DNA sequence: TGCTTATTTAAGTATTTGCTTAAGTAAGTA
DNA sequence: TACTTACTTAAGCAAATACTTAAATAAGCA
């Protein structure tokens, strides 16, 4: 970035800017991690898969393909992304592979499911 | 999709599949809306902007450009997406435009800010 | 009025995404 | 052993994304 288009208004608070910059630097890793998880949920197909896994406990690629009306490789590739992103896991039973949500990030995901179920956000606790 | 690669195992529960399919159809709009909001948060730059707006109440593109170390047009385009997505709004003061979070979706966003601040939702705290 | 400042918009581009089809793997089954 | 079945992986491609630079807009200010 050349940044020739600099804003030089004197109302800006350099102290505030600097504090913000430090905070960003300090939390760089958190932003990276969280945004990558949210990117996984920010796709309609994957959000549906996550919702279904939450509701049905576990499902195989075949079932998901059937429910979502899309090809098995397409589903499989979404599952791989989420497995790599550490929000789903699987177990094998014969040649069938059952996917499920990892407990680790359930707290992040649960409010999303509540929204979809129509239980509005403002009441989003469920203990 | 040609779906030649169909799974035909007999263990599948057609009743379960069908219920799921109905549920997906019934909530189609919710999935579309929520995933599009989550897609906005699933970008590191935008997540940072949202975090900063939450913390500083309001900021102009110029400040954000300065804090994030990126060009003003780049910031402006992210802000536009989020404005279109209805999660930020703005007010004008002279030639300066101050962006802020829309209250409407604060409940969805707040847990993200808590995670970044280290107040983790789950058990993995470290204080 | 003309010049500067703050911001947006537009056009161009490299990268990423999400599908497709085809091929590969691995666990039953005959 | 060979043939299914369930799934993954690879390659290819159209569309979307996120930046870049340059031009446009619009609000002060001299």
Automatic annotation (TrEMBL), chains A, B:
<dbReference type="Pfam" id="PF01022">
    <property type="entry name" value="HTH_5"/>
</dbReference>
<dbReference type="InterPro" id="IPR001845">
    <property type="entry name" value="HTH_ArsR_DNA-bd_dom"/>
</dbReference>
<keyword id="KW-0805">Transcription regulation</keyword>
<dbReference type="GO" id="GO:0003677">
    <property type="term" value="F:DNA binding"/>
</dbReference>
<dbReference type="GO" id="GO:0003700">
    <property type="term" value="F:DNA-binding transcription factor activity"/>
</dbReference>
<feature type="domain" description="HTH arsR-type">
    <location>
        <begin position="26"/>
        <end position="121"/>
    </location>
</feature>
<dbReference type="InterPro" id="IPR036388">
    <property type="entry name" value="WH-like_DNA-bd_sf"/>
</dbReference>
<keyword id="KW-0238">DNA-binding</keyword>
<keyword id="KW-0804">Transcription</keyword>
<dbReference type="InterPro" id="IPR051011">
    <property type="entry name" value="Metal_resp_trans_reg"/>
</dbReference>
<protein>
    <submittedName>
        <fullName>DNA-binding transcriptional ArsR family regulator</fullName>
    </submittedName>
</protein>
<dbReference type="InterPro" id="IPR011991">
    <property type="entry name" value="ArsR-like_HTH"/>
</dbReference>
<dbReference type="InterPro" id="IPR036390">
    <property type="entry name" value="WH_DNA-bd_sf"/>
</dbReference>
């Amino acid at each position: 970035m050349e940044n020739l288009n600099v804003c030089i208004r004197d109302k800006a608070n350099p102290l505030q800017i600097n504090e913000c910059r430090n905070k960003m630097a300090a939390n760089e890793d958190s932003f990276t991690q969280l945004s990558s998880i949210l990117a996984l949920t920010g796709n309609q197909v994957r959000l549906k898969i996550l919702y279904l896994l939450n509701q049905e406990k576990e499902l195989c690629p075949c079932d998901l393909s059937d429910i979502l009306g899309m090809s098995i490789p397409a589903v499989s590739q979404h599952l791989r992304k989420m497995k790599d992103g550490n929000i789903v896991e699987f177990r094998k039973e014969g040649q069938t592979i059952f996917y499920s949500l990892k407990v680790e990030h359930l707290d992040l995901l649960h409010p999303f499911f509540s929204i979809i179920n129509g239980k509005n956000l403002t009441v989003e606790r469920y203990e």
